[in-house]
Amino acid sequence: MAQTKVILRTKIDGLGAEADVVKVKAGFARNFLIPTGRAYEASKGNLRHLDTLQKERAERETADLATAEKLAAKIKKLKPEFILETGAGGKAFGSVTNMDIHKKLEELGIEINRTAIKLDQPIKQLCTKDIAIKVHADITTILKVKVVSDKKEEAAAGA
Q: How far are the Cα atoms of 25, 26, 27, 30, 41 from residue 33, in angstroms, in the given order?
C-alpha cells in the first residue's frame, strides 16, 4: 500500500492533532483529508511553515488550558441544590440526572458539554454527592450536588 505524509489542519481522533505530520494511505489523503480541508500535503513549502503552525497550536492550547482552569475553579465553588418529591417513608420519587445538572449549570452561567458530567447513574436518594466534571482533557473538577426533599418537615426530621 502506498503511503504519503500530510500535515493535519485540525485534530482527528485516532490520527493526530493540528500541525502533526502523519503518514496515511495515499487514497485516504487524496480522497478525504486534503479535499475536505483537514490536511495539507507535506510538501517542502508546507513543511517550512510547520514551526509557525505548531507555535499557533501551542499558544491556543495554553489559552484553552487557562480558560479551563478558571472554569474548573468556578464550578468547584458552586453547590447546586436539587429538590426531589418524597413520599410518606422519605422515599424519593424521580432522580437527578446528567441533564438536570447540565440545565442547572447553564442557569448559573456555566457552559459545558453535557457529556463532561461524569455521573455513573442517576441520584435517587436525598444526599450530598461529589460529581466529577471533565472541563478539559487534563482538568477534572468536583461539583458538590445536594439533593433535598420537597417537604420541609421530613427534611428537618432527617437532619
A: 10, 10, 9, 7, 9
What is d(CA 90, CA 15) in angstroms, rounded to the nearest whole number? 52
CA–CA dist 135, 70 (Å, integer)? 10
Say what the pLDDT of residue 138 is: 86
Residue type at 35 in one-letter notation: P
Angstrom distance (rounded) from CA 123 to CA 127: 9
| Cell numbers found for residue 125 | 436518594
The CATH number of domain 70-158, selected from 3.30.70.260, 3.40.225.10, 3.10.430.100, 3.20.20.70: 3.10.430.100
- Alpha-carbon distance values, 3 to 29, 106, 137 (Å): 9, 46, 31
The model carries a pTM of: 0.70
C-alpha cell at 119: 455521573
